[in-house]
Amino acid sequence: MDPAVADDRDVVLIFDTTLRDGEQSPGATLNIQEKLEIARQLARLGVDIIEAGFPAASPGDLDAVRQVSETVGREPRVDKFGRAAPPPVIAGLARANPSDIDAAWEAVKGAERPRIHTFLATSPIHMEHKLKMTPEQVVERVREMVGYARSLCADVEFSPEDAGRSDPRFLYQVLAVAIQAGATTLNIPDTVGYTVPVEYGQLIRDIRENTPGAKNVVISCHCHNDLGLATANTLAGVENGARQVEVTVNGIGERAGNTSLEEITMALYTRHQVYEVDSNIVTQEIHRSSDMVSRYTGMVVQPNKAIVGANAFAHEAGIHQDGMLKHKRTYEIMDAGTIGLGQSKLVLGKHSGRHAFRVQLEQMGYHLDEQDLIEVFRRFKDLADKKKVVTDSDLQALIGDELYKPPEVWQIEDVQVTCGTNVIPTAVVRLRNVETGELCTDAGFGTGPVDAVYAGINRLVGAPNKLVEFVIQAIDQGMDAVGDVTIRIEADELIGFVERAQGGRGQRIFSGRGIDTDIVVASAKAYLQALNKLLAAKEEREAVVALGV
């Protein structure tokens, strides 16, 4: 049995694929540093298995998984009971072919607990049109490739892609062969989100009852949200004996997304009397994990998203407010503090010192090194001069803006705008080239102040692109609330695609996020962050071409 569950609890293992399946969301491309930071947070969250990527996709992906394996995959941690716990399992995804499996093993072998996760489609439509293989050929390929993976790694997971649309009897045969070849976990993917809970739950039960050897391996659920049923299907799988669930933070993923980590874990926590199973998740880390993934990927969490949406613990209706004042449980089935979300309150003032600031951050769960603390404290002082009230939410956003940012090519030094009725919006922008230290200034005109600022930045940076999304949110309440801007841009020129494990490529989209009490400045920060990502990708692409890779 896995050491993470070697106690008297019935535990569902949490397999997080934010760094692999989640990254397949358009615009969610992450660099190595961002992946490392998310992996560290997933470890703090208590995730049992981290699927760190698809190593065969590119040398960069392989390197990212290798770095996660050699760092996060070797760092002991403390579990939710305060006990010493081993590092998370680090998994790499591989198609059922030797080169992919070799790449996965090369990437994960540095982890204390490595896993190879290989897959092959089993549905009639996939076998005929994508694989162009007969059922007999699929069975033999599974036998060979699972066996090959097991010869390299003691922990092997096998997934019959599109299991939800596969013939159950054929599925039992394939899974039995995978077990014989050495698979230790069998994952049952509803790849296109086609099944409904009663079907998926029954499928899990039937696999356990009809597949020779199934009682000796872990059965896993991997559901997609195309019909909005990913969480319900996964819970149905747990109810029918699955003891691993494959999830992503905020439910991000290709198309409509994947099963949401926070929804599954809080469903098991809140309705324990129904499911009678536990997870190893430190629930107080959920909100921080959600915020980090949102910031790094540029994918804003919808306000009405269960558990982590801005409205999840908001009660605006008068009747709800009245009930809440009389007894919290009238309209609230869980405490906000359970997911690490505290009440918005005044935490510090502009006269507060650095020691008090550090203590407050540590109470919120942030442990910054001296250099990061100095920079974040400087930003806090600037914010405290502009706002009467600085809240926990403000501090979280500030930390995210300062620490969760990619390497910079250009930095904003100054932005000035002129706008109003009967005036052509004009912006003067001053940027610093980080590599040369040179200060560059130019002006731009537009249909509004933000458009004018972007025109000025474009004249200086010279990276043609198309703006595909622009979102503004207020972090807190009040006229002096901090503005939070998220944008996504698409490069006008070809700088590479996102390689997908299931086949095909996706156009690269780059996200940026900025916060400031001045919404124009926040917009400028977000745009420049996206441009810095674009420029880094362009440089990487040029280096690859130069090497002839």
Overview of this protein structure:
The structure is a single chain. The protein is an alpha/beta fold and 549 residues long. It folds into four domains: 295 residues, Aldolase class I (TIM Barrel, Alpha-Beta Barrel), CATH 3.20.20; 27 residues, no CATH class; 64 residues; 138 residues, Double Stranded RNA Binding Domain (2-Layer Sandwich). The chain is 40% helix and 19% strand. An eight-stranded parallel barrel has the order 1-2-5-6-7-8-9-10, surrounded by nine helices. A three-stranded antiparallel β-sheet has the order 11-12-13. It has a three-stranded antiparallel β-sheet with strand order 14-15-18. A hairpin with a 5-residue loop joins strand 12 and strand 13. Helix 14 packs across helix 15. The radius of gyration is 24 Å and the shape is globular. The N terminus is likely disordered.
CATH architecture tag of the largest domain: Alpha-Beta Barrel
Q: Give the integer mean of the pLDDT values.
A: 86
Helix proportion of residues, in percent? 25-40%
Number of helices: 17
Strand content: 15-25%
CATH class of the largest domain: Alpha Beta
Q: What is the β-strand count?
A: 18
- Counting structural domains, the number is 4
For the CA atoms, what is the radius of gyration? 24 Å
The chain-level structural class is: alpha/beta
Q: Write out the CATH superfamily name of the largest domain.
A: Aldolase class I
Largest beta sheet, briefly? 8 strands, parallel, barrel
Key terms:
549 residues; 18 strands; globular; disordered N terminus
